[in-house]
Fold this sequence. Notes:
The chain has helices spanning 24-36, 137-149, 161-169, 193-198, 217-227, 232-248, 295-305, and strands spanning 2-4, 12-13, 40-44, 47-51, 55-56, 61-65, 69-73, 86-87, 93-99, 102-106, 111-112, 120-123, 129-131, 269-270, 286-287. It is of the alpha/beta class.
Amino acid sequence: MKAWVSHEDQEDLGTPASGSFDCYGAIKAAIKACNAAGGGRVVIPAGDWYVAGPIVLLSNVNVHLKKGAHVYFSHNPADFAKYGDIDCGKHGKLTISRWQSNDCLNYSPMVYAYGQDNIALTGDDWTAILDGQGGFDRMLLPYKRTLAQIGITLNLRRIDSAQYVNRLNARDYDMIVTSFPRSGDPIVSPGRELYSLYASQSATQVGSSNSMVLADPAVDQLIDGLVQANTRDAMVRYARALDRVLQWGDYMIPNYYSKGTPTVFQNRFGRPSVQPVYSEGLDTWWEVSAKPLTNQQMSALHQLAGGQ
Length: 308
């Protein structure tokens, strides 16, 4: 990181973060140096930068991201309770913030300023990114690094929801992260939903799930055969053939899957001894206590009722 004293001479001030993968110290030192010199710009150059803490702006300082600069903030909340001005003991060092129009002490936001004047946070263009690593970033970044090893550059771009919907409807994208609706978990009996997922008729249809814009006569024929199959054996043959064709086309790259659905609940509910195979079966639960019970109390109730 380089701290520029002014826009004119662009004198460099040393801001080392020796041996540190975390750029928090370097950015903080650059902002402090600019502020002490009377103002200027802290320029974050192109590249990927990890920051385990907030960027705290000081008076008369412009933090500017150059084209291609991608700042990844830590996704660990504890990193934003380390550097505040107010020591709250076991709760960390917090900052003055607001919650529902009330002043309070809280974790720092990723970019923070309090009582400062003439501050700015700017970037060259849309490739200058402050990234809170929400959503799928933590899953996609390893994929990005893997592609880079074989000479392929992957740029991740996050846009607002309205723009995303417009671009999705217009099929204006190279790749997107999405999920597919299914008739069961796993798919117990594939059927007419395949037309919305893979058929030519849905390739450019607004609202369809054919996000890869697939229009292949062979796929259409296999879907027709599967939907019109009169026996299970025929359905299985068409389903396996469709699966081979779709995999051969490399239309999708799986991110992850979860075997089962993690469920957290209070000790207030009874459940049948036989559980559904493809569902959590929440509609088969019943309340046994208005308040949560201890594990021992719950076990005693289960033994009496013969439930699970």
